[in-house]
Amino acid sequence: MKDKVAVLKQWQHKAVLDLKAINILLKTKTAPRSIIAFHCQQAVEKYLKAFLFFNKIIFSNTHDLDLLLGLCLQKDNAFKLLNRSILTELKWYAVSQRYPGEEYEPNRKETEAYVKAVKQTKLLVEKLIK
User: Fold this and answer.
1) Can you list the domains of the chain with their CATH numbers?
2) Are 106 and 37 in contact (CB under 8 A)?
3) How much is the pLDDT for 118?
4) pLDDT digits (tens, 9 = 90+) for 46-65
5) How do residues 98-107 score in pLDDT, each as one tens digit?
6) Is the pLDDT of residue 31 over 90?
7) With contact defined as beta carbons under 8 Å apart, do 41 and 121 qualify?
8) Are 114 and 38 in contact (CB under 8 A)?
9) How many CB atoms lie within 10 A of CB 83?
10) How far apart are CA 74 and CA 85, in angstroms?
């Protein structure tokens, strides 16, 4: 049981590190918003995986937020509260955005929506895994 708690805390800790990076980047006027979006995607992914791990739901080594959210929804309808269209947008930043030729710099409004999605996911998951 102790190992389960330790691994769960590691998932949450990794997500918190992404959230810290987001907050630092938001304070920097010249920070690329695409990098903020990348960390938003990463944080949401880790929070969803924390929930899945906590509930002993097997998930693949994926960055696909649609897939992960679908698995979460199978366990708890509370995940319907999350903005699925924003999470679908965010999944693009996991890999594609990281390579040449796929650059896109989200605008301020998009970035704010991504940050909001992280915070909503964090609060929901923390509530459900207590």
Assistant:
1) 2-128 (1.20.120.330)
2) yes
3) 98
4) 999 999 999 999 999 999 99
5) 778 777 899 9
6) yes
7) no
8) no
9) 15
10) 18
